Amino acid sequence: MLPTLVLASASPRRRELLTGLGVRFVIRAADLDETPLPGEDPETTVLRLARAKAAAVARPGELVLAADTDVVLDGDILGKPRDPEDARRMLARIAGREHTVLSGVALEEPATGRSTSGMAVSRVRMAAMTPERIEWYVATGEPLDKAGSYAVQGIGALLVEEIFGNYTNVVGLPLPLTWRLFREMGYELLDFR
Questions:
Q1: What average pLDDT score do residues 10-14 get?
Q2: What are the residues whose beta carbons fall under 8 Å from the beta carbon of 33, sequence distance 6 or more?
Q3: For strand 62-73 and strand 76-78, is the pairing parallel, antiparallel, or unpaired?
Q4: What does DSSP say about strands 62-73 and 4-7: parallel, antiparallel, or unpaired?
Q5: Residue 52's pLDDT is what?
Q6: What is the pTM of this model?
Q7: What is the pLDDT of residues 119-146, one digit of tens each?
Q8: Cα separation of 83 and 59, whole Å?
Q9: Where do the domains of the chain lie, and which CATH numbers do they carry?
């Protein structure tokens, strides 16, 4: 018998990606401080946070899936903007440039004590943006709760010139990596449909 699959995230994008596969799951978002630790590099941060989110909500009889996604430019993590001005600043910084999107993904099964995790990396090249274009996009409201201040699956797709790597990673849950981690744990992701 399969354990109950739990998504340790309130992200509508992650929910939509799993729902698109027909996977059944329950949502129990982890509420953690997502601040990078002093001296911690972005790769370590996303893996640590994905593992911590999975562990925070895990209960016996469940298989917990958690993820953490960050936009990285010049070694700096560009998280969710604090306000519209912060979104404008981030968008001006990534405009016409290439940045990296990192997603840490973790699975935890408390009943067996097993866990696994991995990271996906994609590069995204953004279009050049005038201050007017940035202002227009910020006015849509879309950038205000997105890492890096854009949504590749929304209006922000108009600003993305090219993706090198997996698209679902940029959305926030790299499905090929997730599928592989399920198999490492001895499960088939699509058996949860």
A1: 94
A2: none
A3: antiparallel
A4: parallel
A5: 98
A6: 0.95
A7: 999 999 999 999 999 999 999 999 998 9
A8: 36
A9: 4-192 (3.90.950.10)
